[in-house]
Backbone:
């Protein structure tokens, strides 16, 4: 064997050995352990726990599910590096950015994805295999009272704020429930009662909610409610089976002298749409004023979209007017398009402008004011506004939701059955 040949063999052998070493030490991408996890956000120096379940061996076949009592919200997972994940909060323009640590924990932040939005990120850490929310098993303290029932919550803030209602259910130390306001509900919350202290938290995609309170000797309680970083209010709570919120059908109404609603706004393709268009003539029309950033709006959409699909051939139309976090049609096409795809919306979606009640009031001048997202307006076959409902309360509110659905169907059935007035038809 000549010298060149010997060098070649040695070189080849070195390459094989070196290549084997590289292959043996190649870093294997990390992924989440399947099962239930416990995460903790840091919000205003408070620890706000949340639970989620992870299923799947790889991003293409995995599901990330947030757990809040009986509620489950599912999200897709995307790998953005060997040890990093991106979890988009579905229709909400926010995401969890997570890093998988060598010990199996994940750390990261909850961040807004709205362009040029200067919001604070919320850091979090999560550990696998921990199913509890606030208190480790075996460390519970006997509750002083049982908080099950309806509670009237008096809110204290710089500006006058209507009272809220808490619907709570306690089983031992475990506490679940929902907070209702004139604009909607908190979605399902989960927490604990320890002695004369209680805590509740909720995280479904929008900013996390955290409530802590102290039970007084007279069995009333005082507490503080935090929504994200900046929205914090204190409250007093008293059990009151007769407590009620203001009538949601009387909060928003037409100004004196108005019978109809009028607007001309672009759809997601930029085409101008008006209630005077032939498509809506002689139809019962449902106008839903929403924003993709608003959890009660997406809950309302989750109700309306399948209802419309089932009833669209009965002489009824619907329009969603979205007010988004950026006053830009291209951005709205993205956010509202995500909403359309997720819920299978088959009615028109228009863009109203920036997410601001004052702006919404200006775009819909017939209304006394835009009080809440969502607001739902029902118009009869003659073009007259017959009903306006402020806010939305979901399934977790029990009888409130059931009553809403019954009234919705009864009222829509009646309006659909009404004939068009002859004086209107002639025109």
Residues:
């Amino acid at each position: 064997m000549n010298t060149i040949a010997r060098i070649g063999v040695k070189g080849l052998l070195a390459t094989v050995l070196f290549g084997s070493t590289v292959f043996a030490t190649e870093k294997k991408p990390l992924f989440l352990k399947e099962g239930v996890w416990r995460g903790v956000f840091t919000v205003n120096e408070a620890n706000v726990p949340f639970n989620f379940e992870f299923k799947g061996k790889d991003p293409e076949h995995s599901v990330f599910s947030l757990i809040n009592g009986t509620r489950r919200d599912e999200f897709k997972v995307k790998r953005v590096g060997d040890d990093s994940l991106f979890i988009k909060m579905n229709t909400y323009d926010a995401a969890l950015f997570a890093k998988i640590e060598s010990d199996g924990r994940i750390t990261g932040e909850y961040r807004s994805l709205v362009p040029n939005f200067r919001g604070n990120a919320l850091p979090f850490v999560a550990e696998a295999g921990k199913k509890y929310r606030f208190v480790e098993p075996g460390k519970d303290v006997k509750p002083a009272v049982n908080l099950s029932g309806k509670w009237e919550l008096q809110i204290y803030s710089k500006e006058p704020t209507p009272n809220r209602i808490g619907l709570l259910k306690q089983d031992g130390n475990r506490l679940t429930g929902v907070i209702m306001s004139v604009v909607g509900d908190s979605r399902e919350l989960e927490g604990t009662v320890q002695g004369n202290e209680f805590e509740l938290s909720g995280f479904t995609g929008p900013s996390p909610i955290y409530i802590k309170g102290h039970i007084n000797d007279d069995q009333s309680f005082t507490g503080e409610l935090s929504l994200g970083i900046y929205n914090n209010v204190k409250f007093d709570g008293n059990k009151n089976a007769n407590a009620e919120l203001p009538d949601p059908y009387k909060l928003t109404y037409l100004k004196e002298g108005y019978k109809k609603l009028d607007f001309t706004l672009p759809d997601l393709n930029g085409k101008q749409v008006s209630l005077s268009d032939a498509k809506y003539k002689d139809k019962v029309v449902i106008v839903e004023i929403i924003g993709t950033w608003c959890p009660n709006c997406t809950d309302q959409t989750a109700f309306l979209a399948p209802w419309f699909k089932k009833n669209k051939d009965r002489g009824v139309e619907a329009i969603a007017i979205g007010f988004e976090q950026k006053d830009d049609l291209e951005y709205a096409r993205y956010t509202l398009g995500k909403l359309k795809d997720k819920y299978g919306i088959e009615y028109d979606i228009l863009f109203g402008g920036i997410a601001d009640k004052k702006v919404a009031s200006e775009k819909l001048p017939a209304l006394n004011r835009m009080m809440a997202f969502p607001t739902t307006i029902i118009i009869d076959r003659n073009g007259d506004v017959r009903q306006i409902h402020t806010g939305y309360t979901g399934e977790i509110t029990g009888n409130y939701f059931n009553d809403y659905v019954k009234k919705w169907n009864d009222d829509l059935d009646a309006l659909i059955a009404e004939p068009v007035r002859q004086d209107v038809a002639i025109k």
About this structure: The longest helix spans residues 3-25. The chain has three domains: 35-128, 149-239, 264-426. Helices lie at 3-25, 295-311, 329-343, 357-363, 399-417, 422-426. The longest strand covers residues 46-55.
